[in-house]
Amino acid sequence: MHREMEDFSWPWQYQFPPFFTIQPNSDTRKKQLEAWCALVLSYLKQKKSHSVDVTEIQNSPLFNNKEINRKLPPDGVYAVFEELQKKGHLEWKDQKTRKQCLIMWRTPEEWGKMIYDWITSKSMTNTVCTLYELSNGDDSEGQEFHGLEKWLLLRALQTLEQQGKAEIINFDGNEGVKFF
Amino acid sequence: MDRFEWSDGNTIPGESFVLKQSGVAIYDGQDKTSFENGSLILTTHKLVWKDNKDKSYVLALPLSLVVYIEEQPSGFARSAKIVVHLSPAPSNKPSGPATYSAYSYIRLSFRESGEREFHQQFTEQLHSKKWEQSIPDAGPTLGQGARHRAGIMGIERSLKQRQKDTDQNISVAFQDLSKLIDKEVGGIMTLTDVYCRVNRARGMELLSPEDLLNACEMLEYLNLPVRLRTFDSGVMVLQLKSHSEEEVIDKTMTLVEEKKSVTAEELSQIAGVSVILAKERLLLTEKVGGLCRDETVEGLRFYPNMFLNRPD
After folding, report:
1. Fewest C-beta atoms under 10 Å: which of A13, B38, B169, B295?
2. Keyword Lyase on this protein (chain A) (predicted)?
3. DSSP letter, residue A18
4. Residue B268 and residue A104: Cα distance in Å, rounded?
């Protein structure tokens, strides 16, 4: 379960005790939160996970460095999450209680662009394929979006729809997409 | 007594009566005068003393000559007094009861009480400075600053003559204090320390904290090389004018870099200042982005600010 984290390279801030205290100086705090956001995203990217339980992640190595005996306090974690939300990387599953969230280390727009670029490079515009084929087919093997969770794939395709580059369709009972 | 002028007691246009108190005697510094039994009148522009016996004996003192006033509370067989520190008489001053005085302060003795109220009103009039609003006539033409600076020189001179005078005034205490603060590393002292030392030097007739604060607010006005300063935390200090903030910040950053990280207690040991001042230095350096903090249950520790001062 933790094997994918074995070769994870922690940034220098992670060994720096002040990193785990939210800084009162606003310039310093800005840099600090930037570093935290980058760390959270790369951590979850390595784990290939999007679904986050706040309590669980607070106690995980991400916010809890046992080596230097420092832990980012809850209000610090929420400050980082607020930043991520502002940048469009985070969505609360439960806006009121804020215990569960989705963290998209790549935004749906970013995914959409990646998929569309790949489609274009394969000259697959004006073709139709199912969502499953797109994310799990042999063709897309090796691509970063390979294995992308369906909800996120849909979001990505929706951004392309808004740009007029795709249309989500339903054919033969399958969910699919047409690229333009 | 050489600052007083003979007067008819009339007001000029724009001047208004404020307060009258009977049973007031005037002392020339430490010495008694013949002006023992009279009424003291405060207007927006001047202080007037009228003799009870001979109504033609009227003295006036322009408020513009007043540098500073202090209270001397009553004691055993001693009435409450107001000490009025004065700048020297201008050369074109109208004639008065004396042409020379060994002192640059007078004392008003309130033998029928009323000192408190008078002091309050007097202070208010000194703040309002209504006499500055009226058209200057034959009044003194010296610049405000020059008059007040000269006033302190006058006080110093008279005090050198009266070394054993227990009635030390605040500006002298502050001269001593400048020397003390100089010795104090960093040229800075908390107001609490100042309060203790000034009162210790006085021995009797101690300053109240309020008195000290009022006096400190006069420092710039009195052109003394010491300044009152309040930190964000609320801590107040007296600081030598020459004290450089940048120097302190640089020094602090260097010290912290050497030690990798410090607490206020550790810095106070290294720099040889009190813990309170060490903390203020750390907070100041943090404020300008030189340091960042590590806050745990073990305490508050400061590190060089790697967030801002290190390439990512």
Report:
1. B295
2. no
3. G
4. 48
* φ, ψ (nearest 5 deg) of residue A138: -60, -35
pLDDT digits (tens, 9 = 90+) for B14-70: 889 999 999 999 999 888 998 999 999 999 999 999 998 888 889 999 999 998 888
Contact A23 B293 (CB under 8 A): yes
Task: Tell me what percent of the residues of chain B surpass a pLDDT of 70.
Answer: 79
Mean pLDDT of chain B: 81
Instruction: Please say whether the beta carbons of B148 and B221 come within 8 A.
Output: yes
Report the C-alpha gap between A76 and A22 in whole angstroms.
Answer: 6
Identify the helix (H) or strand (E) that includes residue B101.
Answer: none
Q: What is the pLDDT of residue B150?
A: 47
ipTM over 0.90: no
Q: Which residues of B touch A18 (CB under 8 A)?
A: 292-294, 303, 306-307
CA distance, residue A103 to nearest chain B CA (Å): 24
Is the whole model's pTM more than 0.90, yes or no?
no
Closest-CA distance, B261 to chain A, in angstroms, reads: 10
**Which of A24, A32, A70 is opposite residue B307, by nearest beta carbon?**
A32
Burial of B145 (0-12, 13-18, 19+ CB in 10 A): exposed
For chain A, what percent of residues have pLDDT higher than 70?
98
B201 CB near a chain A CB, below 8 Å?
no
Cα–Cα distance for residue pair A51/A54, rounded to 1 Å:
10
Q: Is-contact B293 B302, C-beta < 8 A?
A: yes
Q: Does B306 touch chain A (CB under 8 A)?
A: yes
**pLDDT at position B140 over 80:** no
Q: Which residues of A touch B312 (CB under 8 A)?
A: 35
Q: In what order do the strands lie in the sheet with A166-171?
A: A128-130, A174-179, A166-171
Helix-helix angle B191-202:B170-183, to 10 degrees: 130
Of how many residues is chain B composed? 312
Distance from CA of B296 to the nearest CA of A (A): 8
